[in-house]
Amino acid sequence: MIPDPDMTQTSPPPAPSPALTVFVDGIGLLGPGLANWAQGRECLLGAAPYQAARCVLPPPMALPQAERRRAGAVVKVSLAVGEEAVAASGLRAATLASVFSSSSGDAVNCHEICSTLASSDRLISPTRFHNSVHNAAAGYWSISSGAMATSSVLCARDASFAAGLLEAITQVAVEQVPVLLVAYDTDYPEPLYSARTIPDSFGVALVLAPARSERSLAQWTLEPAGCLSRLPADRLNDPALEKLRRDIPAARCLPLLRGVAGRQSGRVVLDYLEGSQLALQVAP
After folding, report:
1. Quick one: angle between helices 73-89 and 37-45, nearest 10?
2. Exposure of 278 by Cβ count < 10 A (0-12 exposed, 13-18 middle, 19+ buried)?
3. Closest Cα to residue 208, out of 101, 96, 284?
């Protein structure tokens, strides 16, 4: 039987995915040759030459003395950039939800535990065990800042910055609250370095907000398509900064930060998972 055209029902076309927009209210930066966001901004603008140098990790003075003694490189770099970003935003750290993202976690601690297990004395110190979990930096942040809001911790190997950014943007859009994103990596000693060649520590922190404020530095919109597999990731013109971007997963943020530094408008494409990139529209 031929159906009556007037009675035939068709499904409506699927609604397009909404674009997710956030505002950058604070930035923290620390890495090889980069002491803070102010210096990083000048280098990304080309107003000052970038000179690679060993990353100097400041002591985490916001921690109580006992915890400060136990803090490793991941805690030092993540707390330093988190504190810088929150201070720039003018918000209270204790009220901010957070996302912590790292490709490798505490590399030195991992090395020391492996060395101990390979020795005749296989007893792991409580401090080593305490710092071995992937959410150690988030825990120390909670102690130092008094933050009691939700904290998410993730890892996506070389895609960890983009994965953390995607999680943070989604939380801001859904919950309509500011979120602190902290992405960081540290280097492995040998022999692990031969398998995971991250040469130094690097950290970036971003305070992302759902609405523009007088402190907003940029507007970022995740394109509806989200991940665009055919677009190449953006590169940096400065060979030394481009090498830093390639060498350390957390430094994949640098094309986005260049857009903030130059008050640029347009599309920025970041490395994400194999065969896909993360595309955002950026504006001052």
Report:
1. 80
2. buried
3. 96
Q: What is the pTM (predicted TM-score) of this model?
A: 0.88
Q: Is the dihedral of CA 87, 89, 93, 44 positive or negative?
A: negative
Residue-wise pLDDT for 123-166, tens only, equals 777 776 667 677 788 888 988 898 888 899 999 999 999 999 99
CB crowding 119-139: b at 16 or more within 10 Å, else e = eeeeeeeeebeebeebbbbbb
The one-character DSSP state at 268 is E
> 67 is written with which tokens?
């915890």
Rounded to an integer, what distance in angstroms lies between the CA atom of residue 63 and that of residue 143? 7
Return the pLDDT at 99.
97
In which element (H, E) is residue 42 found? helix 37-45
**What residue ranges do the domains of the chain occupy?**
20-215
The arrangement of secondary structure in 20-215, i.e. its CATH architecture, is: 3-Layer(aba) Sandwich (3.40)
Q: Would you give the distance in Å from CA 153 to the centre of its chain? A: 11
Q: What's the pLDDT tens digit per position in 102-129?
A: 998 787 877 777 777 888 887 777 776 6
Reading the block at residue 10, the tokens are 């068709």
